[in-house]
Amino acid sequence: MVTPTPANVTVAKALTSESGSQAGIAEGGETLVYTITLTNSGGTAASYDLTDTLGRA
C-alpha cells in the first residue's frame, strides 16, 4: 500500500505594477496589478480554488 504524501500549498500575493504618480501609495483611479502565486512543495494536490476578495478601504 502506498501512502500519499500530503500537499504543502502556499499562496503569495505581490504588487507588480501601478499606474499612479506616487509609488507605494494607492491613488484614486489608479490601476494596480498583482501577481498571485500558488506553490505546492509537497505531494499531489487534488484540487484547489483560489478567491481573492477585494475589500473597500
If you had to describe this structure to a student in words, what would you say it looks like?
The protein is mostly beta strands. 0% of the residues lie in helices and 33% in strands. The protein has strands spanning 9-18, 32-40. The protein has a two-stranded antiparallel ribbon with strand order 1-2.
* Class by SSE composition: mainly beta
Strand order of the largest sheet: 1-2
The largest pleated sheet is described as:
2 strands, antiparallel
Shape: elongated
Provide the succession of SSEs: EE
Into which percent range does the helicity of residues fall?
under 10%
Radius of gyration: 17 Å
Cα separation of the termini: 52 Å
The number of helices is 0
**Beta fraction of the residues?**
25-35%
Mean pLDDT: 87
Low-confidence stretches: none
Give the strand tally. Answer: 2
Features:
mainly beta; 2 strands; two-stranded antiparallel ribbon; 57 residues
Sum this structure up briefly.
This protein has 57 residues and is mostly beta strands.
What is the topological layout?
Layout lengths: L8 E10 L13 E9 L17
Antiparallel strand pairs: 1-2
